[in-house]
Amino acid sequence: MTIKNSAPKDLPEIFRLYKIASAYQEKKKTVVVWPEFETQLVETEIAENRQWKLLIDNQIACVWATTFDDAEIWEERNADAVVYIHRIAVNPEFRGRNFVAHIVEWAKEYAKSHQKEFVRLDTIGNNTGLIAHYQKAGFEFLGIFTLKSTLGLPAHYQNGPVSLFEIKL
User: Fold this and answer.
1) Can you give the pLDDT at residue 30?
2) Least enclosed by CB within 10 Å: which of 7, 10, 42, 46?
3) Domain named N-acetyltransferase: which ranges (predicted)?
4) Topology of 2-168 in CATH?
Protein backbone atom coordinates (compact mmCIF):
# COMPACT_ATOMS: atom_id res chain seq x y z
CA MET A 1 0.00 0.00 0.00
CA THR A 2 1.45 3.35 -1.09
CA ILE A 3 0.09 6.90 -0.75
CA LYS A 4 1.15 9.45 -3.37
CA ASN A 5 -0.05 12.65 -4.93
CA SER A 6 -2.42 12.16 -7.82
CA ALA A 7 -1.25 13.20 -11.28
CA PRO A 8 -3.13 14.66 -14.26
CA LYS A 9 -3.18 11.20 -15.87
CA ASP A 10 -5.29 10.02 -12.88
CA LEU A 11 -8.20 12.37 -13.68
CA PRO A 12 -10.32 9.76 -15.53
CA GLU A 13 -9.97 7.29 -12.66
CA ILE A 14 -10.67 9.94 -10.01
CA PHE A 15 -13.89 10.94 -11.78
CA ARG A 16 -14.83 7.29 -12.31
CA LEU A 17 -14.52 6.73 -8.54
CA TYR A 18 -16.58 9.87 -7.83
CA LYS A 19 -19.34 8.56 -10.14
CA ILE A 20 -19.28 5.17 -8.43
CA ALA A 21 -19.47 6.87 -5.02
CA SER A 22 -22.41 9.01 -6.18
CA ALA A 23 -24.25 5.95 -7.53
CA TYR A 24 -23.67 4.17 -4.22
CA GLN A 25 -25.01 7.19 -2.31
CA GLU A 26 -28.05 7.31 -4.62
CA LYS A 27 -28.70 3.63 -4.00
CA LYS A 28 -28.59 4.09 -0.21
CA LYS A 29 -31.25 6.83 -0.41
CA THR A 30 -30.40 7.91 3.15
CA VAL A 31 -27.47 10.16 2.32
CA VAL A 32 -26.86 13.29 0.28
CA VAL A 33 -25.58 12.41 -3.19
CA TRP A 34 -22.39 14.01 -4.49
CA PRO A 35 -22.89 16.18 -7.56
CA GLU A 36 -20.62 16.00 -10.59
CA PHE A 37 -17.56 17.87 -9.42
CA GLU A 38 -15.92 20.47 -11.63
CA THR A 39 -12.88 19.17 -13.49
CA GLN A 40 -11.09 22.45 -12.70
CA LEU A 41 -11.49 21.79 -8.96
CA VAL A 42 -9.63 18.49 -9.18
CA GLU A 43 -7.07 19.80 -11.67
CA THR A 44 -6.25 22.60 -9.22
CA GLU A 45 -5.92 20.14 -6.34
CA ILE A 46 -3.55 18.03 -8.42
CA ALA A 47 -1.49 21.07 -9.45
CA GLU A 48 -1.27 22.14 -5.78
CA ASN A 49 -0.40 18.59 -4.58
CA ARG A 50 -3.65 18.35 -2.58
CA GLN A 51 -5.22 15.38 -4.39
CA TRP A 52 -4.07 11.97 -3.12
CA LYS A 53 -4.27 8.34 -4.13
CA LEU A 54 -3.73 5.12 -2.24
CA LEU A 55 -2.21 2.49 -4.51
CA ILE A 56 -2.37 -1.29 -4.17
CA ASP A 57 -0.46 -3.26 -6.79
CA ASN A 58 -0.20 -0.06 -8.87
CA GLN A 59 -3.99 0.31 -8.95
CA ILE A 60 -5.80 3.29 -7.44
CA ALA A 61 -7.71 1.86 -4.50
CA CYS A 62 -8.84 5.13 -2.96
CA VAL A 63 -8.62 8.90 -3.57
CA TRP A 64 -9.16 11.99 -1.45
CA ALA A 65 -8.27 15.67 -1.32
CA THR A 66 -6.74 17.85 1.38
CA THR A 67 -6.61 21.54 2.14
CA PHE A 68 -5.30 23.75 4.93
CA ASP A 69 -8.19 26.20 4.55
CA ASP A 70 -11.90 25.43 4.77
CA ALA A 71 -13.51 28.63 6.05
CA GLU A 72 -16.88 28.09 4.34
CA ILE A 73 -17.50 24.92 6.33
CA TRP A 74 -15.49 25.44 9.51
CA GLU A 75 -16.20 29.17 9.88
CA GLU A 76 -14.48 30.54 13.05
CA ARG A 77 -12.71 27.21 13.68
CA ASN A 78 -10.85 27.64 10.40
CA ALA A 79 -8.34 29.82 12.30
CA ASP A 80 -6.93 26.61 13.85
CA ALA A 81 -3.90 24.87 12.33
CA VAL A 82 -5.62 22.06 10.41
CA VAL A 83 -5.44 19.53 7.61
CA TYR A 84 -8.92 19.05 6.16
CA ILE A 85 -9.84 15.88 4.26
CA HIS A 86 -12.46 15.89 1.49
CA ARG A 87 -14.11 13.49 -0.96
CA ILE A 88 -12.83 10.08 0.04
CA ALA A 89 -13.82 7.74 -2.79
CA VAL A 90 -13.02 4.04 -2.81
CA ASN A 91 -12.51 1.77 -5.80
CA PRO A 92 -15.20 -0.95 -5.34
CA GLU A 93 -12.63 -3.63 -6.17
CA PHE A 94 -10.93 -2.71 -2.88
CA ARG A 95 -13.96 -1.91 -0.71
CA GLY A 96 -14.01 -3.22 2.86
CA ARG A 97 -10.33 -2.61 3.63
CA ASN A 98 -10.98 0.29 6.03
CA PHE A 99 -9.06 2.87 4.04
CA VAL A 100 -10.31 5.62 6.35
CA ALA A 101 -8.10 4.19 9.11
CA HIS A 102 -5.11 4.24 6.74
CA ILE A 103 -5.93 7.79 5.65
CA VAL A 104 -6.19 8.87 9.30
CA GLU A 105 -2.75 7.50 10.14
CA TRP A 106 -1.28 9.13 7.04
CA ALA A 107 -3.10 12.44 7.76
CA LYS A 108 -1.79 12.57 11.32
CA GLU A 109 1.80 12.35 10.07
CA TYR A 110 1.10 14.74 7.21
CA ALA A 111 -0.45 17.25 9.64
CA LYS A 112 2.49 17.01 12.06
CA SER A 113 4.97 17.52 9.22
CA HIS A 114 3.12 20.76 8.37
CA GLN A 115 2.89 21.93 12.02
CA LYS A 116 -0.88 21.37 12.19
CA GLU A 117 -2.81 20.59 15.37
CA PHE A 118 -5.92 18.93 13.94
CA VAL A 119 -7.15 16.61 11.21
CA ARG A 120 -10.76 17.37 10.27
CA LEU A 121 -13.43 16.25 7.87
CA ASP A 122 -17.14 16.68 7.28
CA THR A 123 -20.07 14.92 5.72
CA ILE A 124 -23.51 16.18 4.77
CA GLY A 125 -26.50 15.35 6.93
CA ASN A 126 -27.05 12.84 9.69
CA ASN A 127 -25.48 9.80 8.04
CA THR A 128 -25.37 7.62 11.15
CA GLY A 129 -23.40 4.82 9.48
CA LEU A 130 -20.69 7.18 8.25
CA ILE A 131 -20.64 9.03 11.60
CA ALA A 132 -19.98 5.74 13.39
CA HIS A 133 -17.35 4.78 10.80
CA TYR A 134 -15.45 8.04 11.27
CA GLN A 135 -15.67 7.74 15.05
CA LYS A 136 -14.29 4.21 14.88
CA ALA A 137 -11.38 5.61 12.82
CA GLY A 138 -10.54 8.00 15.68
CA PHE A 139 -12.48 11.15 14.85
CA GLU A 140 -14.45 12.97 17.52
CA PHE A 141 -17.95 13.76 16.27
CA LEU A 142 -18.52 17.45 16.99
CA GLY A 143 -22.18 17.49 15.99
CA ILE A 144 -24.41 18.60 13.17
CA PHE A 145 -24.30 22.24 12.10
CA THR A 146 -26.14 24.46 9.64
CA LEU A 147 -23.72 26.50 7.56
CA LYS A 148 -24.11 30.26 7.53
CA SER A 149 -23.42 30.32 3.78
CA THR A 150 -22.90 27.65 1.13
CA LEU A 151 -21.74 30.13 -1.51
CA GLY A 152 -18.65 28.78 -3.21
CA LEU A 153 -19.18 25.21 -1.97
CA PRO A 154 -20.06 22.21 -4.18
CA ALA A 155 -23.80 21.82 -4.77
CA HIS A 156 -24.40 18.99 -2.29
CA TYR A 157 -23.67 21.36 0.62
CA GLN A 158 -26.99 23.06 -0.17
CA ASN A 159 -28.88 19.86 0.71
CA GLY A 160 -28.58 19.80 4.47
CA PRO A 161 -26.53 20.52 7.54
CA VAL A 162 -22.97 19.23 7.97
CA SER A 163 -21.62 16.68 10.42
CA LEU A 164 -18.20 17.81 11.63
CA PHE A 165 -15.33 15.61 12.87
CA GLU A 166 -11.85 16.21 14.19
CA ILE A 167 -8.80 14.55 15.64
CA LYS A 168 -6.67 16.69 17.94
CA LEU A 169 -2.99 15.81 17.60
Assistant:
1) 65
2) 7
3) 1-169
4) Aminopeptidase (3.40.630)
